[in-house]
Design goal:
This protein is an alpha+beta fold and about 400 residues long. It is built from 14 helices and eleven strands. The strands form two sheets. The chain has a nine-stranded mixed sheet with strand order 6-7-5-8-4-3-10-1-11. A two-stranded antiparallel ribbon has the order 2-9. Strand 3 and strand 4 form a beta hairpin. Helix 4 packs across helix 10.
């Protein structure tokens, strides 16, 4: 280990000159003892960086899955052609909707500022795979083909095809092996399926993707939807999509609707509706807790691994630290060396961690059709957590420095 020269008395000329330097100049003239100690033992450095990278991968994968959970759950919500959404108070999430009376939509038209109110029917449908005939669970919407229910061109330009009874639009990003069926459809071959014992024909494709609750999505007309589920009845709807007139105040109109409509229906702004869905998955399902627990475990594992490396390093160089103390260096100076090592490990170990996680994200996305993607905010947050993690490990490891007594070697 390189040992810098012993500092001279406070009255010495070099020290006086050093005090005149600014922070950057002092930093540039400082001997990088932390890096020299880490790089001196290449094997130990590789193990330490692997530990940090492993902890980063754990945290990034859990955060990636959690992000995919929220994003996949609200992909339809975010594109709804509505300013305000009406739903049953018993609604748990989009996959577990309860119907409410269609009369509430007509009543909402009495409120000043409301331009239109359209019904949306939705249910979890069990359909047969077009080629294997195996059952799969799809989120199916029944819509008015003349009234676009989402801001999605790939769906809206095909809505007219749904005016033919027993026809569907199919989510070609649905989870499952649909490659053969899609290739046949692209060649002009008919693509049929079966729902509730009735034959249905696929007349168009769109891309939404799967979620943690459904393998994919289907869109059909209200008439076909009610023909498949006659017990639902047209007088009860799953959601109400309310659009406001230009210039209408969203918050004020929402409050008026809440006062105007009975308690058997709940009024959400679109943002509140999206937040409701995310909150359900975050707080009311085991999977949301599991992802948060996974992030915490990754952090704790990283603290333990880095602590083991830094603690071993401190023990291995305890005599050198005692020499520093004998030369007049303060305890704070020695602590700075260990914390410098911690920050170096955090920054360098993060690089392979985020690179490997990005590759794993891609593999997960291809295998599951879930929206798992690396974002700058997530990477930055994990980098900050990694630095904190390594500093905690370094702070624990520095307790051993208190025993670096010069009397041990003199």
């Amino acid at each position: 280990m390189n040992i810098p020269a012993k500092p001279k008395s406070p009255q010495s000329a070099p020290l006086m000159q050093l005090k005149k330097l600014n922070f950057v100049q002092r930093l540039r003239r400082r001997t990088p003892l932390g890096w020299l100690q880490l790089s001196h033992e290449k094997g130990r450095l590789a193990v330490a960086l692997s530990g940090v990278a492993f902890a980063d991968i754990l945290m990034l994968m859990q955060l990636g899955f959690q992000g995919a959970l929220f994003q996949s759950a609200v992909r339809i919500h975010e594109t709804l052609n509505a300013d305000i959404v009406l739903a049953s108070p018993q609604m748990r999430n989009m996959m577990n909707l309860n119907d409410f009376s269609r009369r509430r939509l007509y009543q909402s038209l009495d409120v000043v500022g409301v331009e239109s109110a359209d019904p949306l029917y939705a249910t979890m449908a069990s359909w047969k795979h077009p080629t294997t005939r195996k059952n799969a669970t799809m989120l199916m919407f029944g819509v008015n083909p003349d009234r676009p229910f989402v801001h999605r061109p790939d769906i809206n330009r095909q809505l007219d095809r749904l005016k033919i009874p027993d026809t569907l639009l199919f989510d070609q990003k649905a989870r499952g092996d649909y490659q053969v069926a899609l290739e046949g459809y692209a060649q002009g071959k008919p693509m049929t399926t079966e729902i509730k014992g009735r034959k249905q024909e696929i007349r168009g494709l769109f891309e939404v993707g799967s979620s943690f609750g459904a393998d994919g999505s289907l869109v059909t007309s209200t008439e076909t939807f009610l023909r498949l589920y006659p017990n639902r009845g047209a007088s009860n709807v799953s959601l109400g999509l309310i659009r406001l007139k230009p210039g209408a105040d969203l918050q004020q109109t929402t409050q008026v609707l809440r006062q105007h409509l009975p308690d058997d229906v709940r009024v959400y702004t679109l943002d509140e509706f999206i937040a409701f869905e995310k909150n359900y998955w975050a707080t009311n399902t085991p999977i949301g807790f599991i992802f948060r627990l996974g992030v915490g475990m990754g952090f704790v594992v990283g603290v333990i691994l880095v602590y083991q490396v830094l603690s071993t390093d401190v023990n291995a160089h305890l005599q050198e630290y005692a020499t520093f103390r004998a030369m007049g260096y303060s305890q704070l100076y020695l602590l700075g060396i260990v914390l410098e090592e911690a920050i170096i490990l955090a920054v360098i170990g993060f690089i392979p961690g985020v690179a490997i996680s990005t590759v794993l994200y891609q593999l997960t996305r291809n295998a599951t059709s879930l929206p798992v993607a690396m974002s700058l905010a997530r990477a930055g947050g994990v980098l900050l957590a990694t630095i904190v993690m390594c500093l905690i490990s370094g702070a624990i490891a520095t307790r051993r420095l208190g025993s670096a007594d010069p009397a041990d070697i003199f």
